[in-house]
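A quick aside before the break. I want you to see a complete sequence-to-structure record at least once, exactly as it would be stored in a machine-readable document. Don't worry about memorizing anything.
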Amino acid sequence: MKKISLLFLALLGSAFAQSANEIVSKVEAAQKNVKDYSFKISGTANFEGGSQKLDLDVKAIPSASVARVQFNAPDALADNIIVVDKNTVSTYLYLTNQITVQTVKSSSAGGFNFDFSQLTNASQFLSDNYNVKLVDTDGASGNRTFVLEATSKNGGTDRNRVWIAEQGWRPTRVQVFNGSGKVTTDLTISNYKTNTGLTSAKLRALPKDAEVVKR
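That is the input. The structure line, written in tokens, reads:
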């Protein structure tokens, strides 16, 4: 699967930001006040050679460097769960009732070519790995949408566009373009919540009767 950059997890800007650098700086400042966050991602993404519907729920605690992703669609991944921290990715496969534990570096969790450890501290990942620019602003003051475009500092050819709503300062949409300019991922972010009292134990919880395989 094409890399899906989840850098949008932390892109919460300022109502008066005039440049991408200002937005990113305020993202990092705002992240310090977020104890936990959760949201739904839905849309389409390339997976196993074709475009498929994607629906998943994300929960994370930045200070504990732990995130949980639960799949609702496509059908092949429904009810699968990924739990990730700085070092380890645990993937629960519903159909086999099996948990595969791998290091972050060696993992291809759920068939995705994506470093899920980004979810544990997305603002830091953004600053370290992407060049970001503001490409569009739409709407009247108080109800604007900012569109940011990010390109990899590490030679990657994919481009990522993220829509940030001024109301609530949260990401609402992300697109990924391949090197040829074709949209490979188009996702909507909804049900965004912060500081709801999530705990590391709840995020890490997986079925106790599942077989554990370490790789």
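Two observations worth writing down. The radius of gyration is 17 Å. The chain has a mean pLDDT of 80. We'll return to this after the break.
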